Input
Amino acid sequence: MEDKFVEGGVCAARGYKANGVHCGLAHKVIAASNSGDETLKANLNPNAGKKNDLAAVFSEKRAAAAAVYTSNKVKGAPLIVTKRNIADGYAQAIICNSVNANTCNADGEEKAEKMCVLLADKLGIDKNDVIVASTGVIGQVLPIEPIEKGIAPLCEGLSETGNTEAVRAIMTTDTVEKECAVRFSLSGKECTLGGMLKGSGMICPNMATNLTFLTTDADISPDMLRKALSDVIQRTLNCVSVDGDMSTNDMCCVMANGAAGNPRIESENEDYGIFRAELEKVLRVLARKMAKDGEGATKLIECTVSSAPDFDTAKIVGKSVIMSNLFKAAIFGEDANVGRILCAIGYSAADVDIGKIDVDMASEAGRISVCRQGACLDFSEELAAKILRCDEIQVLISLNAGDSEATAWGCDLTYEYVKINGDYRS
Amino acid sequence: MEDKFVEGGVCAARGYKANGVHCGLAHKVIAASNSGDETLKANLNPNAGKKNDLAAVFSEKRAAAAAVYTSNKVKGAPLIVTKRNIADGYAQAIICNSVNANTCNADGEEKAEKMCVLLADKLGIDKNDVIVASTGVIGQVLPIEPIEKGIAPLCEGLSETGNTEAVRAIMTTDTVEKECAVRFSLSGKECTLGGMLKGSGMICPNMATNLTFLTTDADISPDMLRKALSDVIQRTLNCVSVDGDMSTNDMCCVMANGAAGNPRIESENEDYGIFRAELEKVLRVLARKMAKDGEGATKLIECTVSSAPDFDTAKIVGKSVIMSNLFKAAIFGEDANVGRILCAIGYSAADVDIGKIDVDMASEAGRISVCRQGACLDFSEELAAKILRCDEIQVLISLNAGDSEATAWGCDLTYEYVKINGDYRS
Output
């Protein structure tokens, strides 16, 4: 069986239910009262549209579980609790709120533990089998009452088609729901792996990225699940940057409940290779979606660095380019400013020979060479302008120094980014 | 004699003349023709207002000279030529153009050499005694004809009051002239040290910063001059960031012609200590001016990190905070978003104990505590808003882990930054 993309996100695999509700977590309203911008106030106040703010995912069977976390030294309290809960390699449910990050609060862990207890009691599972996550404003005490009130409707509404309600509940400044799922076969058994992701600002993962929840019905041991996740994260979510700001709450976790009935993966066998590749495929799609929905973004920037001596060099170069504010602003202005690309390569930590570098830019409108052997070319500005008018821009860099390759994803820097982040807390 | 600030910039010290002219270097006009923004086109086209684009500084006596350069692996051709020319520790004149960076061009060094020859011939000095610099667009061939044409009026107009014409000629997106000079005494002799700086975008020095030219009439050996410059650069220009983009053309150079007649400084004696302190004072003022005039900036952010185990830790923490796009946008929005400060400290490379950190914010309107021992406080939003309404904002971080301190300077992230950089090349 050929693998294929399917619908259903976090509910695509067998044995999972999800839901999302509006429980009424609200920002402490401050700056908005000083700001004249009514549209912004309306957009950012979750009560305005009764946006979902509490999500749950439930696996009928206890599932192998693995997660990767932000490498920020400031870690959200939910990450600490989750890490403790899945230390044994298993979990059965996820609870996640938006609006408030429950981070840098004196009572953070206590509140995160309480969220686990509330969910576990209602679902009749062990509180230590709960993955807990929060996203939103840092440094404001999380009110637990709305969650207490919301837990009943949240659990009662769990369903096999609840993925959309769930993904909406974890969104903050995201403008689109980000889901992906694939179906593939392991030793003749049909398996499914799917998930959802939120993340739009404060995005510069260095371990995982904002919040990503994956579910699969494949049978795989906790050790092998952890290994697969750690491997692919480096080539997917860790290659995304929206603004260079690494969140305190980044987490990517995956549950595998074995409902597909495939022979359990316990070593790096052929099935492991297939599973790992499918996991990478899903995370790559989600990574790209995240970059394209970067705060205020109008264009996706996809930078592929090839002919590199090794993967790390390629990744460092690619990330340096997509993270340059100057280059990001140039892409917003549809300006083929190759000097800024070379400049960003030059100040990256990668050991490269600038004199060997070739750069092309491309989109669905065409492809143009802008630099050869480190010297800028006198290219057609007309064609360049046509290429940059599209909303997905490729930057193709060849280091001419080896066989390795990496892709990094980012977005342009726009007025809207500044607007969103000038007044987010309100 | 008490030291004091004086006027005159690069001409404040005895024995120096300067000038700036409009020689007609023009951007290759591209994107502007595609853009409907006429104001922007007019602002960025140097021909529109006949802005000065070529500067020279001349010392009557051959002077000791020292410089520090960008650590970007892509280095502008002028830097390479300058480094060669002052390898012997001496120089007598500076030539600098704006509009075109003469970087990433196949004929860059040849053109930079040509600029030295043109100036040296006209002034009757050795071409190897010329410091050459360029700033502007990367990757466009530098037309030498306008410089050939401009060299006569440039040299003929050199004067002891030419500092203003000179500083205007080196500006690109700068909106104010940045000059500073101090007068002090060395062993009873009155000495003066002054200079000019340009830099507004692509500012994240890691060695020197954009272009800084200093002149002094103090007598100091090339070795001691180099030592003083290398020392203070770490505490001044290298603590500034506007956008995290480290330029390919950053250079800070100083000439010391000995016209003051003080006993020549040849060791780390008391006079050396005074000279070094005055040099730091001038560069600190210029660093602050640069940050405040960051592209599109409406507010200066001055982040002082105290009680650090060492200077480097303090500097890393301070720079991480002033470089955070999210925090910069929050300051633009006058939002006391302490979570973003802690987040930026957390992802910095500094080894700090988050649980010990205290943070205050201040301005001329007052001071407010926003975080104690790593936990956000429930502070008065009214007072915070009042503080953030000012145009110079202090962030005061105590690591409670030692006696060292560092200050980093940055600015807010605004719509205007995006606008300026979305269309700079045109």
